[in-house]
Amino acid sequence: MTTDDTNKTKAQLLKEIQCLREQLTKKSITNSHENEERFSLAMHGANDGLWDWNLETNEVYYSPRWKSMLGYEEDELDNNFATWEALVYPEDKDRILEKVQEYIEGRSEAFEVEIRMRHKDRYEVVVLSRAFLVNRDYDNKPVRLVGTHIDITERKKIESYEKRNAEILEMIATGKPVGDIYNAIALMYEERHSGMRCSMLELHDGKLMHGGAPSLPKEYCDDVNGLEYGPSVGSCGTSTYTGKRVLVENIEIDPKWTKIKHVALPHGMRSCWSEPIKNSSGEVLGAFGMYYNHPALPDEEESNDLKSAARLAGIIMEREQSQKRIRQLAYNDELTGLSSRAHFYQNLEELIKISDRHNRRFSLLYIDLDNFKDVNDSLGHDVGDLLLKEIANRLVKASRNIDYVARLSGDEFCILVNDIVDEYVAANVAQRCLDAISKPIELSGRKFTPSCSIGIAYYPDDGENLSTLLKAADTSLYAAKEQGKNCYAFYRPEFTHKAEYRFQVEQYLREAIEKQQLSLVYQPQVDITSGEIIGVEALSRWHHPQLGQVSPIDFIATAERIGMIKPLTEWVLITACNQAIAWKKAGLPALRMAVNISPSHFLVRDIVLLIKRVINETGIIPAELELEITEGVIQTEQQNLSIFQDLKDLGILLAIDDFGTGYSSFASLKHLTIDCLKVDKYFIDDILIDNETQLLIASMIEMGHNLGYEIIAEGVETQAQFDTLKELGCEMAQGYLLSKPVSPDKISKLLSSNIV
Ligand code: C2E
Ligand code: MG
Ligand code: MG
Q1: Looking at residue 11, what is its pLDDT?
Q2: Cβ contact 204:222 at 8 Å
Q3: Whose CB among 222, 306, 491, 721 lies 3.0–4.6 Å from 462's, allowing a Cys bridge?
C-alpha cells in the first residue's frame, strides 16, 4: 500500500467512525452492544461497506462506503430495505433472499453471495456480500443481520475477460463461424468498458465490409458495409487506408467524419477510435472500432485494449483468409476455373443422395482428351495448359446450365448430367461436347484439331455408389478409346471384365521383362518371285503363368499407357539384333530383321540414340535392320519428321506398317525417305473378293514403285492371293501361307533350305 492509500484508508475509517457516532446520537440507538459490533466491523476493512438489517422493522443501516460504492452520497439513500430492493438486479433478488432465509434459519453455515447492483450512473457493480452476525431474541427468533459489501466488479471483469478469452480461443480451435467469433470479441471488450460498442470491418479490394458488430444498430452496419476506404472516411476507413491508429474524440466535429457522420450521429455514436487489423506480415486486413456515445479519448486501459482487440481480430482474419484460399484451391481447379476433383466428389455424393430420395437417375460423362500427351510432349506444357483452358470453356458451353462440369486431373473432365427426361439427354450432351471440342484451335501459331472420347454411365443402373459409378464411366471411356477415339460409349457390363483383365495385364507386365516371360517369334518375309526368305519380322510374345498367352495388341498398348514401352522396345531390339547376329554366325544366309516401333517413340528424339546404341552393342549391320512404323507417325509435326531423317542417316531401313488403314496419303510420304510399304492384311483379305480392292492394291503397288518403295503384302493366307499379288507386281509377301511367326530355331531350319 502506498502512503496515499494508507492516508485514504485512514480517512475513510475516520469518516466511517464519525458517521457511526453521529447515528448513535441522532437515532438514539442506545444499544451499545450494537454499536460495538458495527465499530468492529468497520475496523474489518475500511474499504468494505457495512449494512445492518433489523429484520423486525426492516430498517437497514447502510454505511457511507456502502452507498458510495454505488455512487451515492450519504443522504441520497434511505435506510430501509426498499433501498436495497431498488438497487439490486431484479434477476438476482429472489436467489439472494433465499440465501438469507437459509442462513437465518441455520440451514447454511455462512452467508456469502455475489450481488449485481446498479450504480447511480446506471452501470453494473458486482459486490460480494457477507453476513456476519445474526442476533436472536429470547425465542431464538432472528432479529438482526449485519454484513459487509466488497466491490468485486474489477475482479469479476478480469475473470470474465479471461473466461471470454478462453471461449474465443475454443471457438477458433473448433472452427466456429468467423462472424460468431467477431461478435464474441466485440462483446468481450464491451463488457470490460461499460457503454462501449465495438465493430470489426474487413478490407476487401479497398472496400470496408461488415465483419462483426453485435451491439451496433443494423442500419448503421448496412450503411458502412461496402464503403471505400480513404484518407478521411471516418475512423475505420482512414485507419485501414493509412495503416495507423485513428482516434476521433468527437465525431460531430472531426473532419475525418464530415462525409459520413450522418450515418453515425442518429444512432448516438459520438466518439470512435480505430486500430488497423494487420496480418503477421503487416498487411492491413481491416479495422477494429470502439465507439462511445459521448466524446472521449481512450484512457490507458482502453488504449491497450484497442491494440489487443485488433491483434486478436487479426489472427482470426488471417486464419480465415488462408482457409478461404485453401478452400478455393481445394474446390476450384486453378487452371480452368472449373470445380476440382474434391468438389466434384462432394457434389456427386450429394447428387446420389438427392437421386435416391426422389428415385431419379442421372448420368456421368467421363471425358478424356485424345492424344493430349502428344500435345504436351511436342508443343510443351504451356501450350498444353492453353488447350486445357479452351477445352474447359468449350465443355461449359456445350453442356446445359443445369449440368455440372469439373476437371478431375490432367486432361480428364467429368460432367454430371442431371434431370434426365429420356435416354437421349446424356447422348446429346456428349455429342455436343464432341462437336465443340473438335473445332480447330490455333495454339502458339499452329492450327490444331483436338478431339476427345467420352464414357457414359448411369446412376444407379451402372454403379450404385460413387466409386462403382466412376469406375463404370471410366470403363466405358476406355471402350470409346478402343472404338477409335473421338466418340462416346455407354457403359456395358462386359466392359468391366475387360477392364479387370486390363488391370491385371498392367500389374503383371511390369515384372514380365524382369522375369523373362517375354519372347520373340519371327515371321518370314518372302520374295514373291524367287520364294526366298529375304527377311523376318520380330513379333513379341508374352506367356504369363496365370493369364496365359497375352496378345501383343493388348500388352503393347498397356506398355504405352503405363510408360513401359521404352524398356520393352529396347529389349525387343537387342534380342532381335542378337538373334540376327547369331544366325549369321551359324552360317545362315543374311536377312533383314524388321522390328515394330510404337509411335510414341517418335515424340522424343531418344529413339535415334537408342538405335545407335543397339547397333553398337549388337554389331548388326544397319542396312539389315528395318524399323516398322505405323502411318500415324508420319502425321506428326514437321520437327518430328526430322527424326526419320536422322534414323535414315544411321543407314537403317524404314517401313510403313499397316499401310492403307491410317490417314496418310502418298503425298505425305513423298517428304520421307522410306524403303518399304507394308500393305495391310485388310486389303489382302478382299483382294479376290472385290475388284475395287484389287484396283486399290494395284495402284498402291504402282505408286509405291514410282516413289522407289518396295511393297510387302501382309497377311497372305492363300495361294490365290499370293498369285494375284505376283501378277500385280508386288515383290514381297508375309503371311500364314508362307509361315506363321515361329521360334528362332524353326527359322534356322527354314533358312537352311532358304525356301519356304
Ligand atoms: P503387325 O506389325 O502388323 O504384325 C503382323 C501381325 O499379323 C502379327 O500379329 C502376325 O502374327 C499377324 N499375321 C501375319 N500373317 C498373318 C496371316 O496370314 N493371317 C493372320 N490372321 N494374321 C497374320 P501379332 O504377332 O499378333 O502382332 C500384332 C501386332 O502387335 C503387330 O502387328 C504389331 O503392331 C504389334 N506388335 C507385335 N510385336 C510387337 C513389338 O515387339 N513391338 C511393337 N511395338 N509392336 C508389336
Ligand atoms: Mg509389323
Ligand atoms: Mg502390320
Answers
A1: 60
A2: no
A3: 491
- Strand-pair category, 592-596 with 548-550: unpaired
Distances in Å between the Cα of 540 and the Cα atoms of 173, 536, 756 are 62, 13, 22
Q: Are 575 and 567 spatial neighbours (Cβ–Cβ below 8 Å)?
A: no
**What residues pack around ion ligand 2 (CB closer than 5 A)?**
596, 628, 657
Quickly list DSSP for 130-195: EEEEEEE-TTS-EEEEEEEEEE-HHHHHHHHHHHHHHHHHHHHHTT--HHHHHHHHHHHHHHHSTT
Which ligand 1 atom sits nearest the alpha carbon of residue 565? 44
Residues near 428 by beta carbon (within 8 Å), at least 6 away in sequence: none
Q: Is 319 helix (H, G, I), strand (E, B) or coil?
A: helix
Residue type, 544: H
Round to whole Å and give the CA distance between 213 and 203: 15
Q: In the prediction, which pLDDT does 314 show? A: 93
Cα 456 from Cα 472, distance rounded (Å): 8
The set of protein residues with a Cβ atom below 6 angstroms from ligand 1 is: 523, 539-540, 551-553, 556, 572, 596-598, 628, 657-658, 714-717, 734-736, 741
DSSP state of 715: -
How many A from CA of 539 to the centre of ligand 1?
Answer: 6
pLDDT value of residue 634? 67
Predicted pLDDT of residue 497: 82
CB-based contact 710:731 (threshold 8 Å): yes
| 387, burial (CB in 10 Å: exposed 0-12, middle 13-18, buried 19+) | buried
Atom of ligand 1 nearest to the CA of 553: 30
Peptide bond between residue 493 and the one before it cis (omega within 30 degrees of 0): no
Residue whose Cα lies nearest atom 11 of ligand 1: it is 741
Q: How far apart are CA 414 and CA 690, in angstroms?
A: 45
CB within 8 A of 606, min separation 6: which ones? none
Q: If you ran DSSP here, which 8-state letter would residue 71 be given? A: T
Low-confidence residues of the chain, pLDDT below 70?
Answer: 1-46, 632-640, 662-668, 754-756
Going by CA atoms, what residue is nearest to atom 3 of ligand 1? 658
| φ/ψ (deg, to 5) at 679 | -70, 130
pLDDT, one tens digit per residue, over 378-407 is: 778 888 999 999 999 999 999 888 889 999
Q: Whose C-alpha lies nearest to ligand 1, atom 19?
A: 715
| The ligand 1 atom nearest the CA atom of 552 | 30
DSSP one-letter code for 523: E
pLDDT at residue 326, rounded to an integer: 78
Distance from Cα 487 to the centre of ligand 2, integer Å:
27
Number of C-alpha atoms within 13 angstroms, CB side, residue 138?
A: 0
Ligand 1, atom 46, lies closest to the CA of 596
Ligand index nearest the alpha carbon of residue 659: 3
Mutate to test the pocket of ligand 1, among 519, 523, 539 (most ligand atoms within 8 A of CB): 539
Q: Give 750 Cα–ligand 3 centroid separation in angstroms.
A: 22
How far, in Å, from the CA of 677 to the mean position of ligand 2? 11
pLDDT at 184: 94
